[in-house]
Write a structure and sequence with these properties.
membrane; 8 helices; transmembrane; Colicin V production protein; about 240 residues; two-stranded antiparallel sheet; 2 domains; transmembrane helix; 5-stranded antiparallel sheet
């Protein structure tokens, strides 16, 4: 999951943002493609480490094998996908790690790799898809500034808040409490998107506090509204609060 998020984050920063990709489906495609490429390079590096594996230390329950990466060999593998897939099949046949002394190989190892592939690719694509959806100003040719405001009180009547924003009514926004502990209490998160073009957009999430089975506080997230246009008055009120 961490690898998938990291790949998606890097692609979002250097491809989606720098390339000003505003089409969410194109952002998704780039994220998926980038994840496949990252996984392929990761396989080339890992296979190189397996090829150059040296002495092993430890017991039949837990241990470590010393290996050194050969960079020229890695580059050679990257440009020889047929060789990479040949090694992948061999690794799957024999396995390189185990659980409680039993080597993991064959169909079970294929299943683990398939799950790994789906997780990495899905998270990477999701991250880039969300970034490509964010507001972009065509008049200034730049992304909107993203401002995450301090936590407000939990929104009980979501439809009323949405109606107020659409009509420019600030009364209920003025009543939102700021006296909330975002680490313990249920609360709402307002993300304001501002641009020199004048128009602002707002996304709101409700965070519902709950205790898990270890009595730790966690939060369920509910999207109240996403990228709704707000007028200058409401934008100023939120920033002032």
């Amino acid at each position: 999951m961490g690898f998938g998020f990291l790949v998606g984050f890097v692609i979002a920063v250097f491809v989606i943002k720098k390339g000003k990709v505003r089409n969410p489906l194109l952002g998704l495609f780039i994220g998926l493609l980038g994840a496949f490429l990252a996984l392929y390079i990761h396989w080339a590096i890992w296979i190189d480490l397996v090829i150059n594996a040296g002495k092993s230390y430890g017991s039949n329950r837990i241990g470590v094998t010393v290996s050194n990466i050969q960079f020229l060999q890695v580059f050679s593998l990257i440009f020889q996908p047929d060789v990479v897939f040949k090694y992948i099949i061999q690794v799957n046949e024999y396995g390189t790690w185990g659980i409680r002394g039993a080597t993991v190989s064959g169909a079970f190892l294929w299943l683990i790799w398939a799950i790994e592939l789906v997780i990495v690719v899905a998270i990477s694509g999701f991250v880039t898809y969300l970034d490509a959806k964010k507001p972009f100003s065509e008049s200034t040719n730049s992304w909107y500034d993203e401002i995450i405001l301090p936590a407000f009180g939990f929104i009980e009547n979501k439809q009323q808040i949405i109606a107020d924003i659409l009509t420019g009514n600030s009364d209920n926004l003025e009543l939102l409490s700021k006296d909330v502990d975002s680490k313990k209490d249920s609360h709402s998160i307002f993300t304001l998107y501002k641009s020199k073009s004048g128009t602002s957009y707002l996304s709101i999430e409700n965070k519902t506090s709950k205790l898990d089975n270890k009595d730790n506080i966690t939060f369920d997230t509910d999207q109240v509204v996403e990228y709704i246009a707000v007028n200058a008055q409401l934008s100023k009120i939120l920033l002032d609060k």
